[in-house]
């Protein structure tokens, strides 16, 4: 799945090789850190990029050096015929990796097909191992479906990680039980700082469970916790409990300590390019496509925009004209 092609670098010398592509803003859960209880005003169908438009964008971006795509949402599998779209883009010879982030409630019927397609990895969102807390956090009673997906993924050939958003007064008691999964299973459990993208304008005046607090909590339970290699563009700093099969990670998504090696761009569910999670959108790709721009014109716009990237998430936030108030369901994680 790989051929030689050039890589584009941003104005800070960082390669841009990874696209996070949101295929829908819709989700069948209502997680507290993602959207309000009443949900959000979902986009009309015509405001969402078609599969043909998404495929065209992917073809342009892989010509510029994008070699990894992560399919996100909302919950990506609420979109009809997603599996066929994934199969189609898997034929792009310039793509090395295709990954998926999912809440796991709808994934089970597609796991064998994803194995056939050759999906590189799955990130499974799981914030608790307790059914009652799951219902409280997600405002839906679908814990059993997610756990079924967990075990089906374990039986499959698809590598997967668990992503857990750490929330004060919600799931602190789940940190160690989730970490304990790495004793039995060869997988990565990653704990994520809560971000201010819950559709309500932030996560409070101050984040309590920062990277350092999460790490100290783990070290209290595992005094011999060892730091291990995290890779050149990893968002997580990774650790291992001696003699455990899997590994642990912490993602400083709010503290933004990994910006210096960021190789990611995002296209959200309404066709807006974000060169940083914390910007408000820097290019309306949907309108450009629908106004009849050529592939070359779109490619040149991408290249120009990549040379305007903020140094980090703090600079991106300062450039915004309005305060953070989006839902992560729209942004795409």
TrEMBL record:
It comes from the Bacteria. It is an enzyme of class 4 (lyase). InterPro entries: Aldolase_TIM, Elp3/MiaA/NifB-like_rSAM, MoaA, MoaA-like, MoaA_NifB_PqqE_Fe-S-bd_CS, MoaA_twitch, MoCo_biosynth_MoaA/MoaC, rSAM. Residues 11-224 form the Radical SAM core domain. It catalyses: GTP + AH2 + S-adenosyl-L-methionine = (8S)-3',8-cyclo-7,8-dihydroguanosine 5'-triphosphate + 5'-deoxyadenosine + L-methionine + A + H(+). Pathway: Cofactor biosynthesis; molybdopterin biosynthesis. This is GTP 3',8-cyclase. The lineage of its organism: Bacteria, Pseudomonadati, Balneolota, Balneolia, Balneolales.
């Amino acid at each position: 799945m790989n051929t030689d092609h050039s890589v584009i670098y941003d104005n800070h010398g960082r390669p841009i090789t990874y696209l996070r592509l949101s295929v829908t803003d819709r989700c069948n859960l209502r997680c507290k850190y993602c959207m309000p209880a009443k949900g959000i005003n979902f986009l009309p169908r015509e405001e969402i990029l078609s599969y043909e438009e998404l495929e065209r964008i992917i073809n342009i971006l892989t010509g510029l050096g994008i070699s990894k795509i992560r399919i996100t949402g909302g919950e990506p599998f609420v979109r009809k015929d997603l599996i066929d779209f994934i199969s189609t883009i898997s034929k792009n010879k310039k793509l090395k990796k295709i990954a998926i982030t999912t809440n796991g409630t709808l994934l089970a019927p597609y796991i064998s097909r994803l194995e056939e397609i050759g999906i590189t990895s799955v990130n499974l969102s799981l914030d608790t191992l307790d059914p009652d807390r799951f219902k409280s956090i997600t405002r839906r009673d679908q814990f059993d479906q997610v756990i079924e997906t967990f075990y089906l993924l374990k039986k499959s050939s698809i590598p997967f990680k668990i992503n857990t958003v750490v929330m004060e007064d919600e799931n602190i008691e789940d940190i160690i039980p989730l970490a304990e999964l790495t004793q039995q299973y060869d997988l990565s459990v990653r704990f994520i700082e809560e971000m201010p993208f819950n559709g309500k304008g932030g996560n409070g005046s101050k984040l309590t469970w920062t990277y350092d607090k999460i790490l100290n909590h783990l070290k209290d339970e595992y005094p011999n916790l060892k730091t291990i290699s995290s890779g050149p563009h990893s968002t997580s700093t990774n650790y291992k409990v001696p003699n455990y099969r899997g590994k642990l990670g912490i993602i400083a998504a709010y503290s933004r300590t990994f910006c210096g090696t960021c190789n990611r761009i995002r296209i959200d569910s309404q066709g807006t390019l974000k060169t940083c999670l914390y910007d408000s959108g820097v290019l309306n790709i949907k309108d450009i496509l629908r106004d009849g721009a050529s592939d070359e014109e779109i490619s040149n716009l991408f290249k120009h925009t990549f040379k305007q990237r903020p140094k980090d998430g703090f600079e991106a936030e300062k450039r915004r004209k309005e305060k953070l108030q989006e839902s992560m369901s729209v942004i795409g994680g």
